[in-house]
Design a protein that fits this description.
alpha/beta, Rossmann fold, 3 domains, five-stranded parallel β-sheet, three-stranded mixed β-sheet, 16 helices, 11 strands, 44% helix, disordered C terminus, Orc1-like AAA ATPase domain-containing protein, P-loop_NTPase, AAA_16
């Protein structure tokens, strides 16, 4: 006979449904033998005759669930198994798969009685938190052992279960650090949510943990300066677009800006100028025109960042581990022939809290979090005459390029 207390309260194989007697069974099966006086005091604290209420409950159990209890004078002892006992054994043996199958919900989930005493209510909630905390610790330890073994899907699954586990007490700071390392290291979407929860508590979570078996280099040292091509000419015009890009890069909700336009319209020059004006983060230029396959984009980024990639390694995870929380701006230039590979960007920026990306492409990357700056050719206003035309961007650029071809050009 098995009493199920996880995710509800039900006696397996029985139609007996009276909540108070079943709760009495659950209490005794969990806490062990108890005196009758103790039981009637906590189960019927407001009854005019609590001893009689206990006797009525015992009669119901004896009639409908014979053999569930054993009386020895004033002492009552349980004689049935519960899923809590099975769960505790699985936890002791470190069997997470069995724990997962047994933990169907919180302890005594959905059990609500209006006449419960304060002591019994506290017991229910304390037991619920105790069990959930043990289960969470089991999931967390299991998840931490899996990235090192190459089982990324199992790791993220158990890490997310640990984070979302119902009934568990609030996470301790150390647990938050461990969970954050797992969630961000496995690319879970819950990493950002956990980080924001921690910030509300005044905590700053570090992106990575030595528990994952990888110790990243110091990003503040590794990315200490801009890595941009030297400017070969004066940048002309595009003040409005430059301002728009700068505004976007300083918005917390903007992590990816894509400059779009036809070939030769000036996307790369604009992106480089915007990057040079960035004082808050170090800008790194990543040329993609020589990359043949979308799968090679992370490889190219790693190459530019001087990050060593090992065979069969998760490339995005490795990049995220090295970038960490460094304030970086990656300039991904000429993305248009690699659009199917853009899906790695949301995963990367989710794991690197201070990373922003500016991409140039003839077409948008078609990502949800993308901000697009469409670029058109510089034009000369139709009503410009005489010397006024020389003050317009298109004319200034024309003169600059003419002088590069002929010094006497004017």
């Amino acid at each position: 006979m098995l009493l199920r207390t996880l995710g509800g309260l039900k006696l397996q194989g029985s139609d007996f449904y009276q909540t108070k007697p079943l709760l009495l069974l659950a209490y005794l099966a969990t806490e062990g033998a108890k005196e009758r006086r103790h039981l009637w005091q906590i189960f019927w604290p407001q009854a005019s005759d609590p001893a009689n209420s206990l006797r009525a409950a015992l009669r119901s159990l004896k009639r409908d669930v014979p053999g569930a209890l054993e009386a020895d004078g004033t002492l009552l002892a349980p004689r049935l198994q519960t899923d809590v006992q099975d769960l505790l054994r699985a936890l002791e043996h470190g069997a997470p798969e069995q724990v997962l199958s047994l933990y169907r919900g919180t302890f005594l989930e959905g059990v609500h009685l209006t006449d419960l005493g304060l002591e019994l209510e506290e017991w229910i909630y304390a037991t619920r938190e105790f069990l959930a905390k043990r289960v969470r610790a089991c999931y967390l330890e299991f998840a931490e052992s899996h990235p090192a073994k190459g089982h990324r899907e199992s790791a993220v699954g158990y890490a997310e279960r640990a984070y979302l586990l119902a009934g568990a007490p609030a996470l301790e700071p150390e647990e938050m650090e461990r969970l954050y390392a797992l969630l961000i290291g496995t690319g879970s979407a819950y990493a950002t949510r956990l980080r924001l929860e921690a910030e509300d508590l005044g905590l700053t979570l570090t992106p990575f943990s030595r528990r994952l078996g990888v110790v990243p280099s110091d990003p503040d040292v590794k990315f200490a300066a801009h890595r941009l091509p030297a400017a070969v000419s004066t940048f002309v015009g595009r003040e409005a677009e430059l301002h728009a890009i700068s505004e976007l890069l300083h918005q917390d909700d903007c992590r990816l800006v894509t400059i779009t336009g036809l070939g030769g319209v000036g996307k790369t020059r604009l992106a480089l100028e915007a990057a040079r004006q960035e004082a808050d983060r170090k800008a790194i230029f990543v040329p993609l025109d020589g990359v043949a396959s979308p799968k090679q984009i992370p490889v190219q980024i790693a190459k530019v960042l001087d990050i060593e990639i090992r065979d069969s390694e998760d490339l995005v995870l490795r990049l995220a581990q090295e970038v960490g929380d460094a304030a970086l701006l990656l300039l991904l230039d000429n993305f248009e022939h690699l659009l199917p590979g853009a899906h790695f960007i949301p995963e990367l920026i989710a794991q690197c809290t201070n990373l922003k990306i500016v991409a140039t492409s003839r077409e948008p990357l078609d990502l949800v979090d993308e901000w697009v700056i469409p670029l058109e050719g510089l034009v000369v206003a139709g009503d410009s005459v005489g010397g006024d035309i020389l003050n317009q961007d298109a004319a200034r650029l024309f003169l600059q390029r003419g002088k590069r071809a002929r010094l006497d050009f004017s």
